[in-house]
Amino acid sequence: MTHIVAPAIWSRIVLTLTAEGESARGTFDRPTHLSSNNGIFAGMRGGVRHDPVVRSHFADGILHLTIQNADDATDQDSYAMVVKGNRAELTFDDVPAGVVM
């Protein structure tokens, strides 16, 4: 099992992954409420959501993840994770820079 903590966002988001061949499964633990501008996460409040990683794939050194809301199976978000040195950058996948979510 691989544990990845995203320290750039104050260790309030914990991504736990297990390799499954060419992909990975796991959980994405995050605050119940947060806002983001695709680079900075803010407004973190509420309890903790334990959302499952339902799809993933590696492409060009980027781990693409699809996370499903544990309370609403129709609510899914896609993220891209890149490891740079001793840290990981997590952004929304396929959202242009500067777009406020």
Task: Please explain how this structure is put together.
This protein is mainly β and 101 residues long. 0% of the residues lie in helices and 70% in strands. It contains no helices and seven strands. A seven-stranded antiparallel sheet has the order 1-2-3-4-5-6-7, with no helix packed on it. A hairpin with a 2-residue loop joins β2 and β3. The protein is globular. Mean pLDDT is 78; it is low at 1-10.
Question: What keyword list fits this structure?
Answer:
mainly beta; disordered N terminus; 7 strands; 101 residues; seven-stranded antiparallel β-sheet; 0% helix
Question: How are the elements arranged and paired?
Answer:
Layout: E1 2-5, E2 14-20, E3 23-36, E4 41-59, E5 62-69, E6 72-84, E7 87-92
Give a brief rundown of this model:
The chain has one domain (2-92). Helix content is 0%, strand content 70%. It contains no helices and seven strands.
Class of secondary structure makeup: mainly beta
Shape: globular
Helix fraction, binned, reads under 10%
Order of helices and strands: EEEEEEE
The number of helical runs is 0
Largest sheet: 7 strands, antiparallel
Number of domain units: 1
* Radius of gyration, in angstroms, nearest whole number: 13 Å
Q: Give the averaged pLDDT, no decimals.
A: 78
User: Unreliable stretches, pLDDT < 50, 5 or more residues?
Assistant: 1-10
What spatial order of strands do you see in the largest sheet?
1-2-3-4-5-6-7
Strand content: over 45%
The N- and C-terminal alpha carbons lie at a distance of 31 Å
